[in-house]
Amino acid sequence: MGEWMNEEENNHVKAAVATFLKEQLDPHFLVLGATGAGKSSLINRIFGKDLQKVGHVESTTRDFKTQQYADETGSTALTLTDSPGYGEVGRDEEYSREVVEVSRKAHVIILVLKADEKGYQRDIDILSKVFTNTEFNKEKPLIIVLNQVDKLPPTREWSPPYDFKTPVSATDTDKVRHIKEKIRVVREQFGRALECHPTICPAMSESDEGTILGIQDLREQLFQSLPDVAKLKYARASKVAAEASESFRAQLDSHANKIIAGAAASAAAAVALNPVPVSDWITLVPIQSGMVIALGALYGKKISGAFATETLAALGAGFAARTVFQGVISMLPGIKNFIGPPYAAAATHGIGVAAKAYFTSGTAPTADTIKNVIEVEFERSKVA
Amino acid sequence: MWFLAPIFIPLAVAAWALQRNASSNSSTGPSDCPRFDERGDIAEPLVAVCGRTGAGKSSLVNALLGQAVFDVGHVESTTRRVEAVRCRFRDKEISVADTPGYGEAHTALEYTVRLKNWISFRRDKLRLLILVLQADNKGYSEDYDLLESLSSLDLKLSLVIALNQADKVSPKYERFMTDSWLDEMSRQTTKTRNLCLKMAATSEQFAKFDCLVVPTQASEGQFNLEHLKQLIYDHV
Asked: Which of B31, B74, B143, B165 is the mutation pick for testing A, counting most A CBs within 10 A?
């Protein structure tokens, strides 16, 4: 597989992957909640067991434990800062200062509540102190997870799947009604006390029967709450695409299109000043490798240089291996000896669309399909 | 009496407005701490039930008395003041007081002061305090802090901890087959083992308050209530 690129070209790809990884932020979540709310089991559910702890980061705050996790390639996938559950009453001031401190680095704050409790005094007290601290950034997304919803009355009723997003209706069972009411009450209580609009996610991260609920919704919610630069590593670590809901699939696709458009623009810019000879087409490969890696991460695939070259090779399987890109490019109408910006953009776009199809369907598109995409894209750029 | 109307109608309107205000602001703001004025009849001997909001105090009292005396809610806090009822308990006449739960926003200190005052004021009548904990919760730091704060009153009363909602102890799908803890223990199921561990841990955590821990369940089926009734009877 690897022989279609020589050593030097391979190094280009590796460098591109390294640059990509450097540009991507490691998503950082701050997880808060009382003892017994189910913080650990929830985190394990969201990110699965295949993430490895890679030692903890020395924390300056005494109550918080910051842990880094890596995926199988060894690169850091995410950072979690976990509160230990609230200790004695009367230490709220000190504790909330620690939350403010840790929250500077976190992208999203996740508060885990036990759904079948009624008073969330400690949580509201501490978060109120955090939110009124002038050094706290109120724009930071807050996601409140109502965990253990199966324990809301009637405890015996349990027949998922449930839909908690629709308004309360007469056909709802008691269980569904209680959960929907709980979501409303928690949204109002925290929203009013903190003057914000928290996202409420009902969930069940653990049960004796091994069933779970609401975890995928939560994964999708976290993706939406993260800044773009932290989304890819998160998507890779959480495998959020694997069980994506229909509405979320559309979001993923539009994010993928953004990545492709960005890479196409970079490719165009790269050749704008110095058009490269067709035979040197490989100099655009690093940009395309970066794009393939980004798309792969988004759809939960591996992140590595070898993965990028393998994927590019798989996409080019219909061509003679070494000349995959020359092959594509020479099929385009009107191409002479040099690649100008529109060709570079169109070709990169074509490879991006092919890679996206490859990651979502698992099969590499045929050479003709890739060629068609490139041609359409090229025509479109001429119109523009 | 018609001439009193100008006085009573504005008073009634004001009272209604106050109450409306209180209920529409439910569970926020520093002034929303539950009150400790009583409704009902408090006589000697008195048994008081306290605990976190949602622990199941009212359900437990209703189940003990065998009738729905107090309102029970599923989502929001229900009991907003001390509700007392005088009743016949076998051959004894007792009063049972259901107190508002703690754990709502901004009220920890205010609540503790009010409950302490209430208990202190009735210390001569009060024989037994039942602290209701939710069996599947962890931590109980608020409950511990409350008992710690009450200990300064130097009360001469007995303390029972009811580990309520015992049916939620893992595994949740396993059911109690009998309604008594003693019988259930002999069945040696995973649930009873876990419950045993929980009782032991709770006894240890609250050891300095010299209390007895009993498991209970009062809604969607009843469990071990006769045991708790016997304890109440023995202490009044």
From this structure: B74
Give the ipTM. Answer: 0.77
Q: Rounded to 5 degrees, what are φ and ψ at B142?
A: -65, -40
In which residue are the tokens 């996938």 written? A77
What six digits make up the tokens of A378? 């090229």
Length of chain B: 236
Chain B 206-235, residues with CB within 8 Å of chain A CB atoms:
219-220
Bridge partners for A200 per DSSP: A144
Amino acid residing at A347: A
Average pLDDT over residues A373-377: 78
> Looking at the partner chain, which of B54, B137, B219 has a beta carbon nearest the beta carbon of A36?
B137
Which residue(s) pair with A356 in the sheet? none
Residues A154-176 have pLDDT tens digits of 988 888 888 899 999 999 999 99
Q: Which two tokens stand for residue A320?
A: 């003679």
Of A88, A125, A150, the CB nearest to B105: A125
Helix residue ranges, H only, A142-284: 174-194, 215-225, 228-238, 246-272
Q: Show Cβ contacts of residue A46 under 8 Å, excluding neighbours closer than 6 positions.
A: A215, A218, A219, A222, A238
Report the alpha-carbon angle B195-B76-B52, nearest 5: 45
Residue B84: strand pairing partners? B97
**Is A155 in contact with A208 (CB distance < 8 Å)?**
no
Model pTM?
0.84
CA dist B233 to A317, B210, B222, Å?
Answer: 84, 19, 19
Among A118, A121, A145, smallest CA distance to A31 is for A145
Q: Beta A28-33 vs B46-51: how paired, if at all?
A: unpaired
